[in-house]
Structures are given as C-alpha cells and as structure tokens.
Amino acid sequence: MISINLTSKICANHLTVQKDGEEYTIGDPEQSIYIRIPIEGVLAIELMDGINTLDEISNLLKKNHDVDVDIIDFVETLLELNLIHKFNDEVLVNLKASKDARGGRVKVGRLLFNKFTVFVYLISFVASIIIFTFNPALLPSYQDYFIFNESVGLSLLILFLISWSLTILHESAHYFAASSLGVPVNFKISIRWFWMVIEANMNSLWSIERKKRYLPFLAGMAWDSVILLLALVCQYIYQQDSIIVGYMRLIVLIQIYKFLWHLLIFFRTDLYYVLITITNSSNLLGQAILYLRKIYSKNARIEWSKLRQNEQTLSRIFSFIYLLGIFSAILLFSFFSIPGFLIAVSKAVTNLVNNSWHSLYFWDGTIVIALAFFNLALWIVGAFNRSKELKKAV
Q: What's the whole-model pTM score?
C-alpha cells in the first residue's frame, strides 16, 4: 500500500485539462477516466511535475495563488482513480507514445466531417422535415415493417439486415467524426430497459475543448438525416415500382424510429451528451430526477436545496425534456414496437401450427422464431455488459 506524506513527489502532468463552466474536467485519455474539479485542483496538478514535494506544492499554492488545498487528500483521490503517472519516481501508469495525427482514419474522418459536409447534413435534416410537412403520406407506419405481406419471416429477416446495416453506419459516423479529432472510439453492446443498443465509447472527447465535442455526438444523426432524405427522394423517383418503394418506406420507418429513440434522453442517447455539453453539467439526468422526486420525497427536497441556483434552473428545464422522452417511449411502443411484434408473432405461430415442415410457410415462421432467439442472445450479452458497468459504478 502506498503511503502518502508531505515529502512525496507526484507526477501527474500527463492529465488533460478542459474548462467546463465553473469547473474543470481533468483526465487520462488513454484510460478514459475523467473527473470534475475546481480551479484549485488544476493549479495543484500543474505543479505535480515529479520534482516538487507535496509540501512544496502546498506552499507554492498559498504563496502564488492564496489557495489552501488539502493536498494529501487530493492526491489520495487521484491515486484511487489511477490518475497518477509517477509516485516518488515509481511508474504507476505507463504512458503510451502519441500517435501520428496524420493517420488514415484521421484523414478519412476530416474528409467526411468538415464545414461543407456539416452543411449537407443540416440541409438533409431540414429537407426531410419539409417533405413530411407537405406530403404526410410519406410518414411510415408499423405496417411498413412487412415488405412481403405473405411472408412475415422473410420480411423480418430483411428488416433485421437493413436495421443492423443502418446501425453500423450510424456508429461508423461517430467513429469517423471522433477520429477527425484524433479521439479513440470503441464499441460495445448494452441495454436500455429492454432495448438493445450499440454504444460508441467516446469518453476521450472530454479531453478536448467543448465546442469540438458536438459534431462527434451528432455525427450518427447527421448520417441518419442523409439516409432518410435519400429514401424519401427514391420513393418519389421510383413511385411506380412497389418493391423499391416498400424498401424505401422500411428505411424511412427505421430512421424515424431512431430519431424518436434519441429523444429518450434518460437512456443517455446522443442528444443527452449534447445537452450536458451545452449545460456544462456532469449529472444533468440525476438532478432532473431529483427535481421530480422532491414532489413526494423529503430527502430529495433536502438534496435539492443543496444544489446551486443555476443547477436548479437547469434541472427544472431538463425535467420537462425528461418527460418528453417518456412520451416518446410510449409513442414508440404504441405505434411501432408493440403492433409490429404482435403481428409478427401471430403470423409466425399460425404458419407453424397450420403447416407441415414441407411447407415454405412453416419455414417462414421458423425464421421469425430464429431471429427472436438471436436477438434474445444479443440482449443477454448487452445485459451482461450493462451489469458490469453498474458494478464498476458502485
């Protein structure tokens, strides 16, 4: 066990520092570990060069900045979070050599995400809204899940392949947008309630200035907007071809579903990270729930009273967005998920019961069951990953 005293020498100059509102976000991009600290902590870290002792750092803070810091307690916190590079010349965290910013993925990222492409993405989103406004018949319904009325299994197989392809494109957008800034990204399967999701871990974005974080967070929705517009335009161009129109309506349905999903900000969707970046809040969701809980909970009212005035104001606003997300979830279930699921299961069971294994309809129903089990397996993987996250958070 490491014993810390005022003669100890600490090196923590590998940490990144970014101002976020009244506080600062510091962290190690290689480990994707970040915390919020006040300016006093930043001033202390700037002096942690492995040469000054903690006693010397404390004295310099008092002399140069009139700041009194419990330096040993602060270092213990950094040590617990594995944010110290060297302790008395002993290496605790190995630093990786910096990578060449001119790497291939960075170049591709900058080609796909720049001022011109951002304008294209924005125009695509606005154009889609205008098209829906003047031609509401293009809005999808749950019936568009089934391209082939007589074959629910084949329809769901096509839905599965197209939706996963679009999901991969969405996550690829996050990857390349973050890569354009030299930020590493990794992916994992997780769950939000009973929805299975693929998460792009872009925690290292907290190591760069705030105004540059928005594009990586919104990149997936940007590509979704382009795909949505192309599907709408194709419906107009090929309006006489029912097969192509069927595929395009399915794509529109999937994209609309995804946009509604992002309104479920209590699931920490892409829009949630945009909001916490705008507001400089590290716990916007928790404070919004606290605002709603204080209506019936005395303990919540006590916690609420301890928040700063600006935090209370943000929480009130965010609580309405939170409620909007719940309404969006009900909308998704009522008009998309539940009706489509009931029709698929009903037709699959009918095909399995009323046909022998020699019949194509029997195997059509089998496809539905097989896809259900495959999705269940993925959901279990996501639930396992989610449980590991919660254990780490405790």
A: 0.72
- Please give the radius of gyration of the chain, using alpha carbons only, rounded to the nearest integer: 26
Residue pLDDT, tens place only, 5-31:
888 888 888 888 888 777 788 888 777
Q: What is the CA angle 147-148-149, rounded to 5?
A: 110
C-alpha 232/C-alpha 213 separation (Å) is 30
Q: Over the range 9-36, which residues count as b (16 or more CB within 10 Å of their CB) and which as e?
A: bbbbeebeebebeebbbbbbbeebbbbb
What count of other Cβ atoms lies within 10 Å of the Cβ of residue 126? 12
Q: Please say whether the beta carbons of 84 and 35 come within 8 A.
A: no
Mind listing the pLDDT tens digit for each residue in 352-373? Answer: 777 777 777 677 777 777 777 7
Residue 159, C-beta contacts closer than 8 angstroms, at least 6 positions apart: 145, 250, 254
Output the DSSP codes for 301-353.
Answer: HHHHHTS-HHHHHHHHHHHHHHHHHHHHHHHHIIIIIHHHHHHHHHHHHHHHH
pLDDT tens per residue across span 106-147: 888 889 999 999 999 999 999 999 999 999 988 888 788 778
Q: Residue 98 corresponds to which amino acid?
A: S
CB 318 within 8 A of CB 288: yes
φ and ψ at 199, to 5 degrees? -105, 135
Helix (H) or strand (E) holding 361: helix 360-393
- For residue range 90-104, list pLDDT tens digits in order: 888 776 655 544 467
What separation in angstroms does the CA of 31 have from each of 27, 84, 132, 386?
8, 12, 44, 19
Inter-residue contact 241 to 196 (CB < 8 Å): no
CA 91 to chain centre: 33
Q: Report the SS3 class of residue 280.
A: coil
What is residue 241's three-state secondary structure? Answer: coil
